[in-house]
Amino acid sequence: MKDRFLRIFRLRPGESRLVFTMGFLLLANSLALSIVEIVSVSGFISEVGVEEFLLVWIADMALLMLTTGLQSLIVDRFERVAFLRWMTLLFAIIYVILRLFFVFGVPSSVTYTALFLLVDQQFIFFPLIFWILANDTFDMAQAKRLFPVIASFRFVGRIGGFGIAAVAPAVLDRLNIPSAELLSVVVVVYLIAFVVISRGLRNINVRKTVRRKESVREALTEGWGFIREVPSFRFLILAMAMLAVGFTIVEYYFFVVSNQEIASPDDFQTFYSLYSLGFTVLAIVMQSLFTSRIINRLNLKNVFMVFPISLLIGAGLIALGPSSIYLVIAGLAFPRLLKETIDQSARSSLQALVPEERRGRVSMFMDSYLFAGGAIIGSVLAGIFIWSGQAGNALAYSYLSITGVCALSAIWFTYRMRGVYDTSLLNWRLKRRKRGSDVLSKLEF
Question: Residue 74: what are its φ and ψ, rounded to 5°?
Answer without folding.
Answer: -110, -20
